[in-house]
């Protein structure tokens, strides 16, 4: 099998831009010094941003408005989240306070029930006797005397 020669073609630069004065048999390319401009302007970020906005179609005012809007929304979201956390903390405290108050009411109700249960024993220890029969008074036929109505009308 015969080996075919391969040619190397590059689209990096058109052949018309190649200098004709240099011979093609040169073994080493010519070296040039390229200075790093990025290190010189790294400290001046604001200057770079202003220069960038001047080279673009959007003016600096639009960029400033967009950044201010983003900062405003971030600040608003932060404030809203802070308020929500504060409200949830207050709600948790109120619920804890309510549960403590409910326990206090239950304790007081238990003490009251205990005192009501011991009331007949304490009354009998003091010499009181339970009521034997019930007495009721019917006031349906009650008619006030004439002297009481004239005195109350004055």
From TrEMBL:
Transmembrane annotation, as ranges: 60-80
rRNA-binding recorded as keyword: no
Domain of life: Bacteria
Region (Disordered): 1-33, 123-154
Coiled-coil spans in chain: 91-118
Bias-annotated ranges (Polar residues): 7-33, 131-154
Keywords: Coiled coil, Membrane, Transmembrane, Transmembrane helix
Protein name: Cell division protein FtsL
Organism: Bifidobacterium myosotis
């Amino acid at each position: 099998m015969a080996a075919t020669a391969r040619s190397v073609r590059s689209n990096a630069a058109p052949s018309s831009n190649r200098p004709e004065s240099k011979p093609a048999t040169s073994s080493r390319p010519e070296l040039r010094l390229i200075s790093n401009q990025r290190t010189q302007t790294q400290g001046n970020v604001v200057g770079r941003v202003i220069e960038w906005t001047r080279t673009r179609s959007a003016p600096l005012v639009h960029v400033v408005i967009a950044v201010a809007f983003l900062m405003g929304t971030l600040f608003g979201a932060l404030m809203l989240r802070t308020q929500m956390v504060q409200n949830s903390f207050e709600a948790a405290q109120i619920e804890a306070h309510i549960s403590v108050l409910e326990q206090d009411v239950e304790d007081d109700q238990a003490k009251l029930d205990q005192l009501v249960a011991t009331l007949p024993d304490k009354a009998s220890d003091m010499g009181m006797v339970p009521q034997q029969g019930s007495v009721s008074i019917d006031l349906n036929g009650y008619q006030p005397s004439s002297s009481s109505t004239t005195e109350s009308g004055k």
